[in-house]
Amino acid sequence: MIRVAVIGASGRMGSTVVEALAAAPDMECVAQCDADTPIASENLAGASIAVDFTTPSATEGNVHALLDAGLHVVVGTTGWDESSLSRVREQATLTGRNVIIAPNFAISAVLAMHFAALAAPYFESAEVIELHHPNKVDAPSGTALATAQKIAHARGAAECAPMPDATTSDPLGARGGLVEGVPVHSVRLRGLVAHEEILLGNAGEQLSIRTDCFDRVSFMPGVLLAVRSIERLPGLTVGLDTVMGLV
Ligand code: NAP
What we know:
The protein is an alpha/beta fold. It has helices at 12-23, 41-44, 56-68, 82-95, 107-119, 142-157, 220-229, and strands spanning 2-7, 27-33, 49-52, 72-75, 99-101, 125-132, 177-179, 182-188, 194-202, 205-213, 236-238. Residues 2-105 form the Dihydrodipicolinate reductase N-terminal domain.
């Protein structure tokens, strides 16, 4: 049995992880920590791996404390930047423990991004539309941002010509936000959860790649896969692509 501690266990994602661990035949949730539980060995009950779904302001400190306590760490909390990632990379090397940080654990979203990057060099035009519930405070979504960046890098590596677009007047920003030259559009609509569509166009043909997450249980197969894989992935791994063998 893999002994797992959940950090942020009473939160929306953390409590879903606790339920997923209870249903997994090879894992056991041995510790549940929240903001008022210090990350110290007496509260970690011999766990070998921790899963952190907390807050952007808390997560880096948690990861350092967990590495120092000798645990591998799977992180779903968002808000990481290059400098916080490099500090964790260094600490993981020093402690000999492993960290997986994935901004999106939904298998369908990870595959959609991967397929979009594979397809991007073969199409003249590519645009990303992300659609979410109206309570989401940031736009575009982190996943749409990452998707557009992957498309831009794939097109750059293939030396694609700029996308055709004759627009000269757009006072309302109706053409969307440009992420490294790739237009990204955000829809906020009551009834939606988390969705993304990537449109790729050539003369006479279109490829649409779409991912729909209807519930936060959609993240759990990715989280459990990361927990099962972390022992064999030394240091810091960012994103689920490596875990899924896509790179
Ligand atoms: P949430 O419901 O607000 O839960 C956050 C939890 O973290 C709460 O239980 C809170 O405890 C706890 N917490 C806060 N500070 C802490 C600390 N210093 N140490 C330990 N626990 C602490 O948030 P959520 O909706 O579950 O989302 C959590 C994070 O996951 C967000 O960053 C969100 O963007 C991200 N997320 C990622 C994915 C993905 O696929 N990677 C998917 C969905 C969400 P108290 O209640 O005691 O304050």
